[in-house]
């Protein structure tokens, strides 16, 4: 027993000495540096949590996948919040897939949570989008949960201080954006503040993109109104501040993904900062997504790079956009197939007040990439 202990201790000393002397290979050091780069979005694994899983005791937090220790502590002290966070993970995943369904990268990478491949580990524009959407999504879901009464720790958002225009009055139940941002950022940013969560450049990138997501969420807060009056005259409108749907926020972030800025981590004054690689005469803008490494083209399957490829993906023969057969299939060509579609047809309106329809079947030609 003593001999085994001495051998292990000697092995640790040798390991430490080799690392100190720089005798390890570059690939090994690279692997060490990359470990944990995606800690900040590992919580998306919560989307796989069974609906029947009980979350009414602190020890239940250990059953949740993808959490780092600081998030586990938040879980134990905010048990009532966890079902909302699980719902947020599901919403982010669903929204990401829908937003990128017409592009080569269709957000399939997040299916691997909590273990990601290189396309999200290396600080690409895809990881920039996922971090931004995740930060916006968790705050959005919490803010809405306050409004619907699903969270005992919060209620409706505050009534605006300004006086509304004549014919308008404040009322209803506003989305509690302040509480959503407070608890959302506390949970989603916690992993990036762990010492072992990757390189400083990656931490800065992820924190910046997460904040971009929250800034876009803030900008989506708008006035929503309900009409009141005799015979629908709408003489008075009751209004409140509500957030846009997450899918609209995702579309805004998608535009920023397409125009994202490549950055480098270099000294600026007394400390290192992220600055645009090609035009580093200006600082990074608060609402622009940034990335450190170029993405794979996602044309061919390459598990090492995290590319699922586009073989068998559906494409649009008549489109000129990213879903076109030329772009989606990367010039490899495509195969046609016939698909049966069942639709509502021959609809009739009946007084008062319902519609009846028949079901019609038609055959359409579709195309998939070779």
From TrEMBL:
Annotated GO CC locations: extracellular space
Highest taxon above the source species: Eukaryota
- List keywords of the entry alphabetically: Developmental protein, Disulfide bond, Extracellular matrix, Glycoprotein, Lipoprotein, Membrane, Secreted, Signal, Transmembrane, Transmembrane helix, Wnt signaling pathway
**The keyword Membrane belongs to this UniProt entry's keyword annotation:** yes
Per the record, the GO terms for biological process are: canonical Wnt signaling pathway; cell fate commitment; neuron differentiation
Residues annotated as transmembrane: 21-45
Q: Name one Pfam family in it.
A: wnt
KW Cell membrane (keyword) present: no
**What is this protein's name?**
Protein Wnt
- What InterPro entries does this protein map onto? Wnt, Wnt_C, Wnt_CS
Subcellular location as annotated: Secreted, Extracellular space, Extracellular matrix
